[in-house]
Amino acid sequence: MPSPSCNRPDLRLRLVENKAETLSIAIRRRGEVFLKMSRASNNRCRFCNDAAFQDGTFWPFDAMAAMIDEGLARGVRRVFLSGGEPTIHPDFLKVVAYARRRGAEHVTCITNGRLFAYPELCDKAVRLGLTEAFVAVLGSDAATHDDLTAVAGSFAQTTEGVRNLVARGVRVHLSTVVNRKNLHQLGDILALVPGVTGLTAVRIAPAGRALWETLDELGFEAEEARPHVERAFRRAAELGLDFVPKLFPASFHEGREASYTHHEEYLPEIKDTELRTGLFGTYARGEGDVACRGATCRVCFRRPYCDALYAFREALLAHGHAVVRCDLDDPRQRALLPALHRQRRLWLRVRRADAVESRLAELGLAVEPWIVEADELGAGDAPACEHLLLYADAAVGRAERLLRARRVGLVPVAGAEPDAALAAAASFVSVATHERYRDELARGLAAPRAATDRGLPVFGLPPCLAPRSIAPAEADDVLDLVAVATPTTLDVVGFTHFFLAHLDRDKSARCASCSEVESCAGLHVNHARRWGFGVLAPLGEPAER
Description:
- This protein is of the alpha/beta class.
- Helices cover 37% and strands 16% of the residues.
């Protein structure tokens, strides 16, 4: 395998220079307080993302106590202790005790588990309130684990620490960073210590030490891991344990789609990468390529995202998008519209449909939109447009009367029974993929299938599920202004939202036999999670090239 490593001293220097501003002591997410207690570890993991930040410092107790108090005051009931390695912090036990005493229901430690091999420390931690531990086990044998941690004897300590925690009633979940040396051991790691709840297996990321030192040795292309991940799923089922692979393509979860972690979970990671390294921001601002672009792409989980970022900006500069989508309620997007509409078809998002014409007039645009996507009709008339995409089902009856008078297409998306909604649909049906996907998916495939039966096109599904489509059929033909900062630069976080909402798709292995395999973007991952990849039905044989 050719080396994909990115030996970039300048990139490493930039990481080190930025550390003071970018490592937050606490991250509040999903009702949790997340404390990064230290920039130190007693392992020297050969793939460590945070290697450039490991300067041996510890956060002061008073600062962590203040964060715990603030989180608990906001209703948080779980405190995560992380690092570096949290157990080597001089105040580790003091923080555990403080969090429980102040009212945290769960105190969770993200750890390599080595110090829990000492029964006295383990006893104190549990007595003071430790309830849960995520323990990193990097191999099913000492040779693999110790090689990856670069510490002889670490495997014996970690596994003994897991046994001690389990014996004392702590809920223990294993974690591992999947790399070329251990990807064949996933099932064995699951079975290593009885009493754990399962294993979370995170694909190695080209970051930190893995980026500039070891990616050529430890990195792997996703498909290399597919049989090993499948075996681990089967082993977990045999043992009655959870197995959660992360940063792998959604299709790795075929048949078990509910186990797929939606990429929305990775939005903080994208933001963090932007803040810490400027990798994506540099390109988005037109200041140069993504620093690691090229050498590491084959083994990087971010490749679909990064490829889409490049394609989007190149199309922006070349005026290559067929449609511009703008949220008229967003002042930033609205200000960009006059410069970027360039006679493209307009897809306008707005809360009240009756506000569209006045908003366009304010911008000096005298153009009939292709699609108006609205939450409600409002008190006024429906706007002049080719298609009205309406979310508010309470307005279906009124909108149907408007259709008869104005011949405007109606697309109810969320909430109503499919038959009632489709009875009013005069143009086409859209299947929400992100913003509304929870409501839409509660109805399953009934709406798109009913639409197809009625001869209505369906927007946003593969051709095997929606034989008729509305052009442009692909989201990458849409210039969504949520992703645009200026007429020539991108907003990285906005683009990430756009990617997750529209471009985050995958295919079943069966799709290779489909005649549309080259032109089809696949099934959105949210649909895959709800319906399963099994709904995909390959069409004929691949066309000869």
